[in-house]
Amino acid sequence: MLKEERHQLILNEVALHNRILLTDISEVLNVSVDTVRRDVIQLDSEKKLKKVHGGAISLGYVNNTSQHDKVYAIAKKTAIAEKAVKLLRNGHVILIHGGTTCLELARIIPAKMSLTCFTLSLPIAMELCKKPKLEVILIGGTMAKESQIASGGHAIHNISKIKVDYGFIGTGYVDATYGLTEFDWESVQVKMTVVQASKNTVLLTISEKLNSQNRYKTCELSDVSTMITELDPNDPLLDDFRETGINLL
């Protein structure tokens, strides 16, 4: 595979999943980790992604550069958020985990709506604070410097003490049979707790993540009440998921 082809695949993967591991990409490309590391260093120098320890993250995921023009598939994520906000009613207590699609949801919640909103994400909390009728509760913990999402034992403990009407989460990977997965064990632990704290768990995911999986399982698909993609709920790409009985929007 030519270097230019490797670079494009790396950029595609980091845009889709927000963060990638060098070891994962080396397996996909069938090249050494050192080769992938050199590729990532070059792409970082060209300001096409950001190199981090053991991997890379998309520029749209970095807290200081999350403008719409840097966020991958922003139109699809906005369409997902527009569906999700229709679930909300005044008086609901909700929990929004974090990530670019969840941030879109926070942005489009109507200013006149009255909700209690828990979140682990500093960018989402700041967005929610712009809405005068929302009560915003930021759940603290060990803050990831890139995404500014809290994790760790403190965050998990606090989430375990609440019960919300809707918990909104994203995912790196989702499969109709295997469920939701991530490559990051720390993220999985927090999302598992969000699922347990939610009367209704709502998965927000673009369709490109369908039928994919990674190392660590967040939950079974049956633990999710509703899955929202940018697709029409009757789209054939959702057939396998429809057969599981999950609510599709």
Task: Describe this protein with a few key phrases.
alpha/beta, Rossmann fold, 9 helices, about 35% helix
Task: Describe this protein's structure.
This protein is of the alpha/beta class. The protein folds into two domains: 3-57, Arc Repressor Mutant, subunit A, CATH 1.10.10; 70-248, Rossmann fold. Helix content is 35%, strand content 22%. The longest helix has 15 residues, at 3-17. The model has no long low-confidence stretch (mean pLDDT 91).
Number of strands: 15
What is the CATH C level class of the largest domain, in words?
Answer: Alpha Beta
Strand order of the largest sheet: 6-5-4-9-12-14-15
Main pleated sheet = 7 strands, parallel
Summed up, the domain count is: 2
* CATH domain fold name of the largest domain: Rossmann fold
Which value, in Å, is the CA radius of gyration? 18 Å
Element layout with pairings:
Elements: H1 3-17, E1 19-21, H2 22-29, H3 33-45, E2 50-52, E3 55-57, H4 74-84, E4 93-96, H5 100-108, E5 115-119, H6 122-128, E6 134-138, E7 142-143, E8 150-151, H7 153-159, E9 164-169, E10 173-175, E11 179-182, H8 185-196, E12 198-204, E13 216-219, E14 226-228, H9 239-242, E15 247-248
Structure summary:
The chain has nine helices and 15 strands. It has 249 residues and is α/β, with parallel strands linked by helices.
